[in-house]
Specification:
The chain is α/β, with parallel strands linked by helices. The chain folds into two domains: 6-198, 2-enoyl-CoA Hydratase, Chain A, domain 1 (Alpha-Beta Complex), CATH 3.90.226; 202-249, Lyase 2-enoyl-coa Hydratase, Chain  A, domain 2. It has helices at 30-44, 67-70, 75-80, 83-92, 109-116, 143-151, 153-162, 168-173, 186-198, 202-217, 220-233, 238-249; strands at residues 6-11, 14-19, 51-55, 60-62, 98-102, 105-107, 119-123, 127-129, 165-167, 179-181. Strand 2, helix 1 (30-44) and strand 3 form a beta-alpha-beta unit.
């Protein structure tokens, strides 16, 4: 389909998706989210792609949802046209790792989008927050749940109830982002990490992502059982045999994704 709200490209085994509504600071609307989810689905089913990056511009990853599209909505309209949660769920279910490369504003739905990704590389200019309270609503795409889990109940409560913002430095300190880098390097650092992950055995990468996400949500005992099952299953793959043989032979492994 013709893309009007995102730019899609690829660099070797890394798929890149740029949010492309710069005039409105990459505000998320139904059309953008449909295009984004479709692009992630396509990369997720492309055997040549092993890691995905979502990014915006230096000024804004995304400043939030497009309020013009939502301002006159009724509960029934929001439920019927649930482009928000439907497409966020499509991103959450992707089997391949997704990195958010964040610079500038990362607010509201933009912050929820970054938290839906598996890792966040942030520019030192990045600002995170869930200011929906200032519009008479609350975060509606996982903001209350994910932010509280990421940074703790008390700080999440303060940010969401006050509509305040969190600096990149604090986001790193609290574990919301993987690392903070100089503004001119954030996208290159994300690409570097993506290439590193893309060079690992694909099935093991997918299983590791799946296990981390499950353990994050399950009680510890159930999470440990889930991890063990995936660990044992990997011993049926050619990559496990290759990886361990290469280690013993002191040579570089050649992954097949089988």
């Amino acid at each position: 389909m013709a893309l009007e709200n995102i730019v899609v490209s690829r660099e070797d085994s890394v798929g890149l998706i740029q949010l492309n509504r710069p005039k409105v600071l990459n505000a998320l609307n139904g059309a953008l989210m449909e295009e984004l989810a479709a692009a992630v689905d396509e990369f997720d089913h492309d055997s040549a792609i092993h890691c995905i990056i979502i990014h915006g511009t230096d000024r804004a990853f995304s400043a939030g949802a497009d309020i013009e599209q939502m301002s006159a909505a009724t509960p029934a309209m929001m439920l019927e046209n649930s482009w928000i949660n439907r497409n966020f769920e499509r991103l959450r279910r992707a089997s391949k790792p997704i990195i958010a490369a964040v610079s500038g504003y990362c607010l509201g739905g933009g912050c929820e989008l970054a938290m839906t990704c598996d890792m966040v590389i942030a520019s030192e200019t990045a600002q995170f927050g869930q200011p929906e309270i200032n519009l008479g609503v609350i975060p509606g795409a996982g903001g209350t749940a994910r932010l509280a889990r990421a940074i703790g109940k008390s700080r999440a409560m303060e940010l969401i109830l006050s509509g305040g913002r969190m600096s990149a430095k604090e986001a790193e300190m609290r574990g919301l982002v993987s690392r903070v880098v100089p503004g001119e390097l954030y996208l290159e650092e994300a690409k570097k990490l993506a290439r590193e992950i893309a060079g690992k055995p694909p099935i093991a990468v997918r299983f590791a992502k799946e296990s981390i996400n499950k353990v994050y949500e399950l009680p510890l005992s159930e999470g440990l059982d889930y991890e063990s099952r995936l660990f044992y299953t990997l011993f049926s793959t050619e990559d496990q045999k290759e990886g361990m043989s290469a280690f013993l032979a002191k040579r570089k492994p050649h992954w097949k994704g089988k």
